[in-house]
């Protein structure tokens, strides 16, 4: 039986009430103003067209009434004159044609505005995601918010056209109601009585279905993830070899079935109640119809007026039904809108440290003073009592077993996280006092889990300094230093070669080739401090040696940190810091550490023996 994620299943399910649906309406003005800003002319055309078309139903019905009354007059007249009748017919035809054209204009502007708005909101989401700190990005609650903001783009586009249609429908209805009131006010009462129960029903169920969808955000993310793991080129090798297909499929099925069952229950209840209330609507129409027929038979109204009234009543009923169902749709989408604005308004950690300017040149270097660190939401000390200096121009290597805390220490130096206690100084200034963006710009960093952008080689290298994307000289130079130039030589389209298999004509690279490309990013920037976190793990021995030779030459006089498990590389560093369980075990030159005969000497000898 597939296992479920305990953390997800244990989460409390939030309930969303009808009150929440109504409260979410307050986001609509902001939403409308965003659409207005997306394309003002198109928005104006759309609104104007809807305004005109709002009067089409009553106008058509009225001309219809005139035609029928005129036919009856002419049937009974002794001297026939059809000229007025044909004028009415021509008028109705023109109205129908114009209204059809305007409807098309509405649909067109709806879809164009919708596309523009969807693009704009996707860009806002991308930008917002990047304003958010790394610590928040690793938080599952954040991912839930992101998921809801991201996946509801279509719903927001529908919401836009629903809101505009709603305004149009209200105007139409007012005009139809005016007609009904003029001839037969009691019809309005029948109409309202028949439609209210189904409206309440819709509101109730739509907030329940939103509530269900919302409370299942984490599970839907899990489903998405399982779908990804089960069906993509990156995992295919392992899935096949380990025979994981059934495991993944069963796990997906178990979770999706659970959601299906809950949803099914709700959908059945919703449509059963809906059917009953709709019956009420049909019965009310016939009650109204009988009343109108009775009025004709008693000579109170004409046959033309009968068609006008029954047509108006029917239209109004449909319009009201549309109005109410759009209303519930809007209420539901407004809740998603709330998610979107909640995400866009997420508090971004404010940087109050703009006062101290970044040093133009590093003179003293870093001083890490008694730093301890636990990841947010965890009590486990990943680092404790870490104190050392990294002098300006020094090349230091961090060494230690898996999980010792090497990458974490780098994340603290880069200010992705703040130490739980202790301070990091650069040239005597607490690094928290620098503007974070400017501070981070001083570093050229390649992480072990660097990203393989399925872009061209040129773009993949230029991401190290994207402003220089057109500077081929700089890109080629960076590629030369990282040995990526050797990879480029083999590619049909050189620097213009699309990488990865996702897109047409893409070329996949080997792990080491990707690493050479990624390494070039570090050289794109003339960074004051270079950090390479296991940058050569996938390189062959010869390539690694060459890469480091170049690195040492290039970074002469530059402050740099290298993390590596290969001691042939590590020994080239000026000093080596050995971490064990988050603490500094030893620090010094290769020679000193070898003399210490501690962990470094042991690991070095172990590796050296392996090569003998
Ligand atoms: N984002 C995170 N949230 C919580 N714990 C984390 C996170 N990243 C790492 N850890 C934990 O912190 C500890 C140190 O991890 P770190 O990545 O710094 O080790 P490392 O020395 O770089 O290891 P390796 O040689 O395997 O790359 C590990 O126990 C790991 O489980």
UniProtKB/TrEMBL annotation:
InterPro entries in the record: AAA+_ATPase, ABC1_TM_dom, ABC1_TM_sf, ABC_transporter-like_ATP-bd, ABC_transporter-like_CS, P-loop_NTPase, Type_1_exporter
Subcellular location: Cell membrane
Pfam family, one: ABC_tran
Residue ranges annotated for the ABC transmembrane type-1 domain, each copy included: 44-332
Transmembrane segments: 43-63, 170-196, 273-297
Its membrane topology: Multi-pass membrane protein
GO molecular function per UniProt: ATP binding
Record keywords, A-Z: ATP-binding, Membrane, Nucleotide-binding, Transmembrane, Transmembrane helix
Sequence ranges assigned to domain ABC transporter in this UniProt record: 366-606
PANTHER family: ATP-BINDING CASSETTE SUB-FAMILY B MEMBER 10, MITOCHONDRIAL (PTHR43394:SF1), ATP-DEPENDENT PERMEASE MDL1, MITOCHONDRIAL (PTHR43394)
Name of the molecule in the record: ABC transporter ATP-binding protein
Biological classification of the source: Bacteria, Pseudomonadati, Bacteroidota, Flavobacteriia, Flavobacteriales
């Amino acid at each position: 039986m597939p296992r479920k994620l305990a953390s997800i299943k244990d989460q409390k399910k939030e309930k969303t009430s009808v009150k929440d649906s109504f409260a979410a309406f307050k986001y609509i003005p902001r939403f409308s103003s965003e659409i207005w800003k997306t394309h003002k002319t198109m928005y104006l055309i759309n609104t104007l067209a809807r305004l005109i078309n709002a009067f089409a139903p009553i106008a058509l019905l009225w001309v219809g009434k005139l035609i029928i009354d005129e036919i009856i007059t002419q049937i009974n007249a002794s001297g026939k004159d059809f000229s007025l009748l044909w004028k009415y017919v021509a008028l109705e035809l023109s109205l129908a044609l114009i209204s059809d054209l305007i409807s098309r204009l509405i649909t067109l502007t709806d879809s164009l505005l919708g596309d523009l708005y969807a693009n704009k909101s996707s860009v806002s989401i991308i930008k917002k995601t990047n304003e958010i700190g790394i610590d928040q990005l690793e938080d599952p609650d954040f991912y839930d918010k992101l998921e809801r903001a991201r996946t509801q783009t279509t719903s927001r586009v529908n919401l836009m056209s629903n809101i505009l249609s709603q305004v149009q429908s209200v105007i139409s209805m007012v005009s139809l109601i005016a007609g009904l009131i003029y001839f037969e006010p009691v019809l309005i009462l029948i109409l309202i009585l028949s439609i209210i129960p189904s409206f309440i029903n819709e509101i109730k169920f739509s907030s329940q279905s939103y509530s269900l969808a919302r409370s299942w955000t984490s599970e839907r993310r899990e489903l998405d993830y399982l779908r990804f793991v089960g069906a993509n080129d990156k995992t295919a090798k392992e899935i096949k070899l380990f025979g994981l297909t059934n495991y993944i499929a069963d796990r997906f099925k178990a979770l999706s079935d659970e959601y299906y069952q809950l949803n099914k229950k709700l959908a059945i209840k919703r449509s059963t109640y809906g059917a009953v209330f709709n019956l009420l609507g049909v019965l009310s129409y016939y009650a109204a119809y009988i009343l109108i027929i009775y009025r004709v038979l008693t000579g109170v109204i004409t046959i033309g007026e009968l068609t006008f009234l029954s047509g108006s009543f029917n239209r109004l009923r449909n319009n009201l039904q549309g109005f109410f169902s759009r209303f519930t749709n809007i209420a539901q989408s407004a809740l998603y809108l709330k998610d979107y604005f909640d995400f866009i308004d997420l508090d971004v950690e404010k940087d109050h440290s703009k006062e101290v300017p970044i040093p133009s040149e590093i003179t003293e270097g870093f001083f890490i003073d008694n730093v301890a660190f636990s990841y947010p939401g965890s009590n486990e000390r990943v680092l404790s009592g870490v104190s050392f200096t990294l002098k300006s121009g020094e090349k230091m290597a961090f060494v230690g077993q898996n999980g010792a805390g090497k990458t974490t220490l780098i994340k603290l130096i880069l200010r992705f996280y703040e130490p739980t206690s202790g301070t990091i100084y650069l040239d005597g200034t607490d690094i928290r006092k620098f503007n974070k963006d400017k501070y981070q710009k001083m570093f050229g960093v390649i992480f072990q889990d660097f990203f393989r952008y399925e872009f061209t080689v040129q773009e993949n290298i230029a991401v190290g300094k994207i402003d220089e994307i057109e500077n081929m000289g700089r890109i080629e130079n960076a590629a030369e230093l990282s040995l990526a130039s050797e990879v480029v030589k083999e590619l049909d389209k050189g620097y213009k070669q699309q990488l990865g298999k996702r897109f047409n004509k893409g070329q996949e690279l080997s792990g080491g080739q990707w690493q050479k490309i990624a390494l070039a990013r570090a050289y794109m920037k003339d960074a004051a401090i270079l950090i390479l976190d296991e940058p050569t793990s996938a390189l062959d021995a010869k390539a690694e040696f060459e890469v480091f030779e170049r690195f040492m030459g290039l970074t002469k006089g530059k402050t740099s940190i290298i993390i590596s498990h290969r001691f042939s590389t590590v020994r080239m560093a000026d000093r080596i810091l050995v971490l064990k369980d988050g603490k500094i075990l030893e620090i010094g030159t290769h020679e000193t550490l070898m003399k210490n005969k501690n962990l470094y000497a042991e690991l070095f000898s172990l590796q050296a023996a392996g090569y003998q």
